[in-house]
Amino acid sequence: MDQATHAMHGVGEPSEWVRQWAHLIAPGGTVLDLASGAGRHARWLAQRGHPVAALDRDAAALATLNGVPGIGVLECDLEGAPWPLPDDARFAAIVVTNYLHRPLMPRLLDALAPGGVLIYETFAQGNETVGKPSNPAFLLAPGELLAVCAPALRVIAYQDGFIAHPREAFVQRICAVRETPAAAANPAARTAIAGSEAESEIPGHTQTSKVLPVSRYVLTA
């Protein structure tokens, strides 16, 4: 990840894409904010009642999150070291913005709990014509994010194109859900699963939260 990309992780307004689809996250569900930087999304999600695990390699950025209620931080090298979380860690949502390391994608999909939501937004090919990042390693190919998520996840929304704000950029965005087939097909199973608890460890403390199967995907304007 180049410096220009990492700089966009500073504290600021949360992404419109994240705000648009955050309502699909189970109430009180634990969220993984990957490559969180100073935590613009971690802070916003914590304010909405979600325990958040914020992972990043930037110790100075993570230090700004120390003591923020509902947020646990973990300094880690996401690209040059093993996956830093337990293999069985599962989350009600995973949020990733302005970051791409392709080898992590299978890990992210596997880390979604049943009913969990992936909200992902990053740069795409064409961005080299308007600014940084311009390295192909950090730019998604046409349709790449969609292909990664399907068919393992149900894709609720996907965009691949050009935006003018907050600055000119070519981006891909996806919101996708790991559905619970048994719950969708059987109301009794839906009730049983909704009452079960799924545990996810957040660096600094342990949070037990309920991950509810999402049976209706409300599309916002």
Low-pLDDT residue intervals, each spanning 5 or more residues? 1-10, 186-201, 204-209
CATH class, anyone?
A: Alpha Beta
Q: In which range does the helix fraction lie?
A: 10-25%
Order of helices and strands: HHEHEHEEHEHEEHHEE
The biggest sheet, with number of strands, parallel, antiparallel or mixed sense and barrel status, is:
7 strands, mixed
In round numbers, the mean pLDDT is 85
Structural class call reads: alpha/beta
- Quote the CATH topology: Rossmann fold
Q: Within the largest sheet, what's the order of strands?
A: 3-2-1-4-5-7-6
Question: Counting H and I runs of at least 4 residues, what is the number of helices?
Answer: 8
Number of strands: 9
Number of domains: 1
As a percent range, the share of strand residues is 25-35%
Silhouette: globular
Distance between the termini: 32 Å
Label the CATH architecture.
3-Layer(aba) Sandwich
Fourth-tier CATH superfamily name: Vaccinia Virus protein VP39
Rg on CA atoms, Å: 17 Å
Structural overview:
The chain is of the alpha/beta class and 221 residues long. 22% of the residues lie in helices and 28% in strands. It has eight helices and nine strands. The chain has helices at residues 3-7, 16-21, 40-47, 59-63, 105-110, 144-149, 181-185, 187-194; strands at 31-34, 52-56, 71-75, 91-97, 112-123, 154-163, 169-177, 198-202, 205-209. It has a seven-stranded mixed beta sheet with strand order 3-2-1-4-5-7-6. The protein has a two-stranded antiparallel ribbon with strand order 8-9. The radius of gyration is 17 Å and the shape is globular. The relative contact order is 0.18. Residues 1-10, 186-201 and 204-209 have low confidence and may be disordered.
